[in-house]
Every structure is written in structure tokens, then in C-alpha cells.
Amino acid sequence: MIANERREEIIRILRARKFEKMSNLAFEFGVDIRTIRRDITHLTISYPLVTKAGRYDSGVYWEQWWQDPHANILSQHHKNALKIAVKAVDKETAKCLKEILEIYGTPKGAAM
Fold first, then answer.
1. How do the pLDDT tens digits run along the chain, 112 residues long?
2. What's the CATH fold of domain 3-62?
3. Rounded Cα distance, 91 and 89, in Å
4. 108 burial type by CB count under 10 A (0-12 exposed, 13-18 middle, 19+ buried)
5. Domain-by-domain residue ranges, the chain?
């Protein structure tokens, strides 16, 4: 995976999870934590990301004021269609569809 692809995936992960430890990201992508730190530094140019130093590990999250402009853009009809599709596809595709629902279909603070 090239740097731009990894950075897009980091943004996707942060949109879904809101916070993640850099060591977890490094493990998920199979890269050194220094690579993740460079990616995050690069991403802070375009996105309001905040890094938090920890005693043993650093983390990254969105600025509290930031609202994802793409969140909650699915209509109820689209959400229902995706929920039906989740039941009819393989495990990996179902995981992707659930992430789409979580990112783009769930109102802030609501459970799916």
C-alpha cells in the first residue's frame, strides 16, 4: 500500500472510530509507528487532527469542533437497502457495508 492509500484509509478509520492509538494503526497497516506519525503529520495539513501523547503510546483524534461534512448523508431508504445487503454478502463485504452505515448513516450519538 502506498502512502496516499494508507493516509486515505487512516482518515476513513478515524471517521469511524473517532480516536485511535498510533501503535494500533501501525499494526493494522504493517508499518513502523514512525511511518504512521509522518502520515498523521501530513494529514494535519488538510484535516483538523489532534495528536495526544501518552505515557506508552500516542493517539490521534478529530478536533472536537469538527463535524464530518459527509456524515449522516444516507436517506432512510439507502440505509435500509444497505442493511438488507449486509445479510446477503460475504463477511468482508458485510464489514465494509456496516462501516459505510456507521460513517454515513448513523446520527451522532445514536446506536445502530
1. 789 999 999 988 888 788 899 999 999 999 999 999 999 999 999 888 988 887 767 889 887 776 666 666 777 888 888 889 999 999 999 988 888 887 777 654 444 4
2. Arc Repressor Mutant, subunit A (1.10.10)
3. 7
4. exposed
5. 3-62, 68-112
